[in-house]
Amino acid sequence: MASVSNSIKTRELLRRLQDNYVLCKYCLLRQISINTEINYASQITTPLVNKGECNICSGLMQETDSIMLRISETLSNDYNFNTFLIGATLPAKLLEKEDRIRARLKIRGRENIKSQLTRNLRKMFSEMTKKQIDFLHPDLTIKLQFQRDTGLDIDIKMRPLIMLGRYIKNNRGMPQRSGGEHNGGNELSLQRQSFPSVNLAPRLGSVICTSEDSSIQSIISREILRLTKGEGLKFSWIGSEDENSLVSGSGRPFFVQIRNPKTICLDERRLNFPRYGLSVNIEQFFGKLPEQPIQFIAKTRIVIRASRQMGEEEFLRIKSLANSRVVFRNQKKKLKSSEKRIYSLDIVKKSKEIFELDVVADGGLAIKQFVEGRECISPNISTTANLKCECLLFDILDVCIKGY
Ligand SMILES: [Zn+2]
Questions:
Q1: Which of 39, 64, 114, 243 has its CA at 20 to 30 Å from residue 332's CA atom?
Q2: 264 CA → ligand 1 middle, Å
Q3: Do residue 11 and residue 142 come from a single domain?
């Protein structure tokens, strides 16, 4: 009985709608059926309405083919994505027209014009591109803004592309970060003239000198922006080294977040910059940046010059620092201190006063301060050996990230 009475009600509603308004088939069926795709759609013969005459949409609901064409023209095959979402903003007047009709005829619980239009467009776009709709984290977001008089604005955004990469650096004299960006506590600088002379010469490699911004950050940035066609990017460094340091082993890791790229991955995972002695490996892609600071352990080779000849006793004292915890007290903020663990120390004597120290320690240990004993760092090499030690150079032999 319920379905019979519903059917009578629907027929009555249909009659009142058709007597009072001119509606296209989309706008008419949307008022009488919860699911506009089935049920009445096949049973009701809707009168043909001339384009633009519909009292609600003024013809917009029949424009989906041309809207789809506009979207594909805007995308122009430039984008590489798997999932998408289409959203739309309609002129308020248009929504008000539907609301007024529904209030007058007491129509409730029906889909409105905006959700029917976006649902239809999403379905069409999915069929056209063979890509999936994703409501939460779409790769591609298409925002359609229907203006009352000026037509349609299309805004296309890709979700940020986040990558974990590592670089190997074979040339000295190349800063890690672009000028002006100093956001680490262990930014170290080393004067060129303090390079040790004879013994270490083969290790020093060639020093490049150019006037362009040849920081590792800008070299990698330029290439990644070229490959992804992004609008901009942001680096999150995992540790830092001196511009005269080399980086070997598995390389220095970093996160990079690319704003509005045209792709969600890179085909080329290996980026080589032979001119700069630099190579980059892109290891992983992420949906978002890690929320916690990345914990890591670094193996560093430090070249140290002592103020006088080193004896067995001094070497033993330095070796005793293995498994100790180094505390760094910030002089400006007395209360703030950080602690880094030393896991191992190996010493190789190179000449009377020069020795190499291979240190495995928690990432972020300020190497120069640790050697020279500056800035409230305790214990440190100089104090432990009871002689003045100078950090001439340090190289990163490996970096291990915890949890990745
Ligand atoms: Zn309509």
A1: 243
A2: 37
A3: yes
Q: Which domain-ending residue is among 226, 257, 286?
A: 286
At 374, list the tokens: 């500056």
Whether residues 238 and 265 share a domain: the answer is yes
Over residues 227-270, the pLDDT tens digits come to 999 999 999 999 999 999 999 999 999 999 999 999 998 988 99
Is the residue at 190 inside a domain? no
Hey, which residues does 346 pair with through a beta bridge?
358
Neighbours of ion ligand 1 (CB under 5 A): 24, 27, 54, 56-57, 61
pLDDT at residue 198 in the model: 31
Do 140 and 49 reside in the same domain of the chain? Answer: yes
What is the domain-level CATH number for residue 215? 3.30.70.2510
**Which is more confident, 63 or 8?**
63
Distance 48 CA to ligand 1 centre (A): 11
Q: Output the six-digit token pair for 348.
A: 């190789």
Indicate which CATH number applies to the domain containing 337.
3.30.70.3190
Distance (angstroms) between ligand 1 centre and the Cα of 105 equals 17
42: CA distance to ligand 1 center in Å?
A: 18
What's the mean pLDDT when you consider all of the chain? Answer: 86
- Report the Cα–Cα distance between both ends of the chain, in Å, rounded: 64
Q: Domain range holding 8?
A: 2-158
Å from CA of 59 to ligand 1 middle: 5
Half-sphere exposure of 274 (CA within 13 A, CB side): 0
pTM for the predicted model, two decimal places: 0.81
Asked whether residue 107 falls in the same domain as residue 20, the answer is yes
Decide if pLDDT at 46 tops 80: no
* 366 within 8 A of 266, measured Cβ to Cβ: no
Q: Is 121's pLDDT higher than 90?
A: yes
Q: What total of structural domains would you count in the chain?
A: 3
